[in-house]
Amino acid sequence: MSDLYKDILTGAMFVFGLFGFISGEFIISSTLFATAAIASNININRKMAKDV
Q: Fewer CB within 10 Å: C terminus or N terminus of the chain?
């Protein structure tokens, strides 16, 4: 999976989490926010490891 698709997937999880938060689904939105944050950190760490 290319970096573009990973970034799109992470952004989509964040947006769906935001919509879930607005609609009152706090457990689902918290899970989506956490998943987006973890995925983003993994992608950043892998990009940094490639450069070194």
A: C
13-41: string of b/e by CB count within 10 Å (b at 16+)?
Answer: bbebbeebeeeeeeeebeebbebbeebbe
This prediction has a pTM of 0.70
Q: Alpha-carbon dihedral of residues 9, 11, 15, 18, nearest 10 degrees?
A: 110
Q: Render pLDDT for 6-41 as a digit per residue (tens, 0 to 9).
A: 888 888 888 888 888 899 888 988 988 898 888 888
